[in-house]
Amino acid sequence: MIGKRYILAAFLMLFLAGVPALSAPSPAQTRPQAAPAPAQLENAPKTEQYTLSHDRYEKAVAFSRSQYTLYFVSFFYGLLILVLVLRLGVAAQFRNLAERFSDRRWLQAALFVPLLFLTLDVLDLPLAAYRHSLTLRYELSVQGWGSWLWDWSKGEMIEILFGFLLVLILFAVIRRSPRRCWLYFWMAALPIALAAFFISPWVIDPLFNKFEPLDSRHPELVTAIEKVVHRAGLEIPREKMFLMQASLKSNAINAYVTGFGASKRVVVWDTTIQKTTTDETLFVFGHEMGHYVLNHVRDGFLFAAFTLLGAFYLAFRGLHWALDRWGILWKVRGDDDWAALPVMLGVLSVILFFASPVFNGFSRMQEAHADIYGLEVTHGLVPDSAEVAAHAFQVLGEVDLSDPNPPDFITFWLYSHPPVADRLVFAHTYDPWAKGQSPRYVK
Q1: What ranges in 331-430 are assigned the alpha helix state H?
Q2: Which terminal residue of the chain has fewer beta carbons within 10 Å of its beta carbon, N or C?
Q3: What are the pLDDT digits (tens) for 67-111?
Q4: If DSSP codes are grouped into helix, strand and coil, which group holds residue 402?
Q5: What is the pTM of this model?
Q6: 264 vs 72, residue with greater confidence
Q7: 392-413 as b/e, with b when 16 or more CB fall inside 10 Å?
Q8: Residues near 133 by Cβ (< 8 Å), separated by ≥ 6?
């Protein structure tokens, strides 16, 4: 979902481009049920299609439709908030307060940015709370309201910190080079995004979830993962593998590789281990490892970076257009006025909203290739690897209440991953070995 802090959101898109995942998990979901025993899976029929019980099917459709609706409602509601903040003179009042507070620009920003961001986010809080209430209503969440609000508060503090830094840079380059400020801001945002991605495993992630060495709880799984890693030609020390206690808040199934250099690590969610067999967990891990082996982290970062370069250029052009039309009405003195920030946020929000299909289409392509890699790297290491992958997608869909038949437009606009039903079928149909063909990635 596009949030209300669009300059920060654009920066975070660069950061998140380096964190690909098996699925797009819901914010907070239920406690896991017991995983089926391996013997049960061996005797079970082939998982050739994504199927749900009647009750689960109805819930999946209803929950998915509510999420689609909420996405578009949130976007237009966010625009309405920004327009009201400008039209009612709230932004101008915050600017006046900041200018009375100090003559120093950085101190003005230190007051203006938290006031604006908190105002926007508090006004958006009812929708955020409703989104969480949906996960509770559909029995997908175990996170209490106190814990959820505390996570929201921590997110606000991080957002304000990064937002202050980015806004300070933004207005500094506007004052120094009004015609090329979009380029200089983009150049400044890239190293900040890289730095955030580097420190995230150490600083940001532990603020929201608990981590511990995977070897301390599941040494047998670490040994199995090492076989997959060695087959891929990689070296990941056991001390770089971690278990995340996702079940305290979520029932989503996931594993991922994050960070780079000294901060690079493998993370497996405890829900994945609880809800799937060891072989299925290996496929999930193989998919995630595919993102790194296939340079998806690098390519995703570069794709987001250059796409956002165009978005920033259009945003600054749109800013001047909007100020020429309504600047006097909004009491905004110019593009270097703090009160112009909500205008920039609104213009950038529209651009990023319509760019969503571009970002998501690129992401779906990468996820499809990571599925291929996961199938290839586990082939021969686990029995009936195609069925293992297909059943992993089945469990993923059941846990997340994945839409069994999303509309084509919704897939095009919103889905960062191919629909679960399509991925499950592909797991069975991709078989170059039976056709005498060479695998694409893992020979």
Answers
A1: 341-378, 385-400, 408-414, 420-429
A2: C
A3: 999 999 999 999 999 999 999 999 999 999 999 999 999 999 999
A4: coil
A5: 0.87
A6: 72
A7: bbbbbbbbbbbbbebeeebbeb
A8: none
